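re: ur question from yesterday

yeah so i grabbed the chain u mentioned. its 362 aa long if i counted rite. heres the sequnce exactly as i have it in my notes:
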Amino acid sequence: MTHLDFALALHERLAPPPTKTFCWSPYSVSSALGLAATATGGRTRQELVTALRDEPAALLELLGASAQLTAASGEQPVLAVANTLWAHAELPIEDSYRLALGDWPGSAVRNAPFRDDPEAARKLINADVAETTRDLIPELLPSGSVHPQTVAALVNALYLKVSWKEAFEQAKTTQRPFHAPDGDREVPTMTASRTLGHAAADGWQAVGIPAAGGVEAIALLPDADLATAEAQLDAARLSGLLGAMEQRKVELLLPRFKVSGGAELTEPLGALGVHDLFTPAADFTPLTDRSLRVSEVLHEAVLDVDEAGLEGAAATAMMMRLTAVVREPDPIRVEFDRPFLFLVRHRDSGALYFLARITDPS
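ran it thru and got these structure tokens back, copy pasting raw so excuse formatting
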């Protein structure tokens, strides 16, 4: 239930007003934050763990299990996951972090010319995300998002395409009224009458639509206005609703839809208590001996649902900079090539243990 709690808590702070259509991926954001928690220490790590409601190891077990789809005869579910640390070639990466990263699905460490050619680095990361997401997310990083001070990025990309266990008949899809917040309209609505998981409790109805590979879609319909009901839907209530589902004959009328969403997550994560990550106080010592901070967290998602099944993609990028870019000054050359004094003291008290004059070191 911890993952549900995280998802609903961030959704509350991330999503636009309830009258606006929106989509995001708790899997992708959780992956990026889990990678960051593995890369951080001290208070920085604890804030991430608190926001995630779980330790990285437990989160990894959850995400790793869900990255393995079961393919039965005739089913061809497609799931692609990439967890990539992009780093400037001169940024030293701890071997222990490389090892820990290897436990995450689709993990890799790759170089990008952040400081030498920020635009080339941006295009390189975008091309990799586009490849993983089958071009559903062609440009995760907008122009200007990679700066000369950027030295690393933690990027998760996700693609999922699965067919329904039993497809909706296209011939039965008809235009039906949909009562949107800004007025009624006619929308293509799929229809099926079959045995499905169903529950009605706590002011909600839930219908489960099984798909290939062990994937299941859950359509949640509130009894009251969504704007009111969504704010009251917490992890306990949602978990109870899902647990109450039973197989029943259901006549389901569900609109076809394609929805997308994009957001910068710094402020929503701050509302969950993640602060140090974005400040010079960030502790990235498990990742590198250089002082880093996250400059921004970018997220984008898209989901397409039709009669055959669903196709979705998401990506999350945590852009990291050095906390300060300081040019080391040229050393001051001091050569003791003539008589000098030499003292040995207790630093705190100032007591002198020795005081010497050196006129001839030979």
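noticed a couple things. The chain has two domains: 2-160+259-322, 170-257. also The longest strand covers residues 183-201.
anyway ttyl
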